[in-house]
Amino acid sequence: MITQHPEREQILLENVLSALGNPLRLHVVRVLAAGGEHNCSNVLEGVSKSTLTHHWRVLRESGVIWQRPSGRENLLSLRREDLDARFPGLLDVLLEAVNSGASSVAPHGAQPMADARRG
Amino acid sequence: MITQHPEREQILLENVLSALGNPLRLHVVRVLAAGGEHNCSNVLEGVSKSTLTHHWRVLRESGVIWQRPSGRENLLSLRREDLDARFPGLLDVLLEAVNSGASSVAPHGAQPMADARRG
């Protein structure tokens, strides 16, 4: 497992909100919320490797995702149990808001606008 | 009313999350959640005027608060109806998480650490 994953008790609300305050990272959370591990190269397409690395780091260090190496790739999964324990109801409310179109994440799974890819 | 308040339909989840991804601004939301208008100089004490201006701007432009001038001060209030309409349940979940101690905002109303005052 890559280091820099906080323990459950170290996950802070402000860090999670800051990590999710970005349409690409919200999109990632929605994809991972389906469950299981996802190959990082399949979660966001058409995004440069350095930008991906940035987004994985923000999500990992805030405690939103697990990231572990597997061959030449990394596998990502949502820390759903930890997040639900720390912030009961938060993920469900956020996913519902994304699916209702209250963000610039496309409601039906398309990726958000390219101009939102940094931040 | 100061300009740069988005209309309800323009309030985006990622902007609200980004605005609230900061312990001082989470503290402000908790204070304003009591309801009514608050004089901006009473909401955060011991913070420089330029830092306050920065935080009010982030909260205002993301759609979290109303800010209006009153004499030499500004009055702040939470856009609770708009936020509840756009993101049902979000504010309640966040306030509960703050009150449970899952952030670096002090659970009982004291202000968060000074080193978190920018961002």
Descriptive report:
Two copies of one chain form a homodimer. By secondary structure, chain A is α+β, with helices and mostly antiparallel strands. Chain A has a single domain, classed as Winged helix-like DNA-binding domain superfamily/Winged helix DNA-binding domain (Arc Repressor Mutant, subunit A), CATH 1.10.10.10. Chain A is built from six helices and three strands. In chain A, strands 1-3-2 form a three-stranded antiparallel β-sheet. In chain A, helix 1 runs antiparallel to helix 4. The longest helix of chain A has 14 residues. Chain A is globular and about 35 Å long. The two termini of chain A are 25 Å apart. The C terminus of chain A is likely disordered.
> What structural class results from the helix and strand content of chain A?
alpha+beta
CATH superfamily of chain A: Winged helix-like DNA-binding domain superfamily/Winged helix DNA-binding domain
**Helicity range of chain A:** 40-55%
- Beta-strand percentage range of chain A: 5-15%
Write down the oligomeric state: homodimer
Spell out the key features of this protein:
homodimer; 119 residues; alpha+beta; Arc Repressor Mutant, subunit A; three-stranded antiparallel β-sheet; 6 helices; 12% strand; globular; disordered C terminus
Task: Give me the secondary-structure topology.
Two copies of one chain form a homodimer.
Chain A: H1 13-20, H2 23-32, E1 38-39, H3 40-43, H4 49-62, E2 65-70, E3 73-78, H5 80-86, H6 90-99
Antiparallel strand pairs in A: 1-3, 2-3
